[in-house]
Amino acid sequence: MTDNLLPFRRVSPSKRSDALLLSACAEGDRTALDELFRRHGDRVRRILVRLRYIHSSDLDDVLQSTFLEVYRSCARFTGRAAVGTWIIGIAMNVVRHYVRSETRRKSALSVVARGPVLRQNGADEQISRRQLLAKLEAGFESLSHEHRVVFTLCDLEEMKSIEVARILNIAEGTVWRRLHDARQHLRRHVSEEPGR
């Protein structure tokens, strides 16, 4: 009789869906959390970097806090959004708490356009590019938290407005309005004459 039974096999975490991994996390499976981090950690890190609220020395702590909160909250996942969207929503809440900390807020903002400086044909072009990037940075830093988050998720991360609305728990129309306002603000900032 026991010859007809199939041996019990555990499905590798890498072959389970995100929803099944969350269910496993709810039961205390840390390898499931590791797999969720492997799948979604890079995107969350990229979003955190692009928001420019988090000082680079705190980035790993905020990322870790996000996934600890995922572990704590996984039993409350309702399935109304994709798991990745839900995780980004948790990251936005962690960021909100981070920003509220007065001591961290003072040291959190850094340049928007970090990266290699492209070789230009002339010194004037390099100066113009640096001035443009400085204006863009100043404009980005002067955006409100709500506008900065929507701009980062929609334009930089190229997420759909419906996903952003779910993450932030707001109407999709509100996402579009904030995105429009953020873009207008940045355009004004970039076209502004120096000294004004």
Overall CATH architecture of the largest domain: Orthogonal Bundle
* Range of helix content: 55-70%
- Overall geometry comes to elongated
CATH topology of the largest domain: Rna Polymerase Sigma Factor, Chain: A
> What is the CATH superfamily of the largest domain?
RNA polymerase sigma factor, region 2, helix turn helix motif
Tell me what the structure shows.
This protein has 2 domains: 16-110, Rna Polymerase Sigma Factor, Chain: A; 113-196, Orthogonal Bundle (Arc Repressor Mutant, subunit A). It contains 9 helices and no strands. The protein has helices spanning 18-26, 30-51, 59-73, 83-100, 102-108, 123-141, 145-156, 161-168, 172-191. Helix 3 packs across helix 4, helix 7 (145-156) packs across helix 9 and helix 8 (161-168) packs across helix 9 (172-191). The longest helix is centred in the N-terminal third of the chain and has 22 residues, at 30-51. It starts with 17 loop residues before the first helix and ends in a 5-residue tail after the last helix. The relative contact order is 0.10. Residues 102-118 have low confidence and may be disordered.
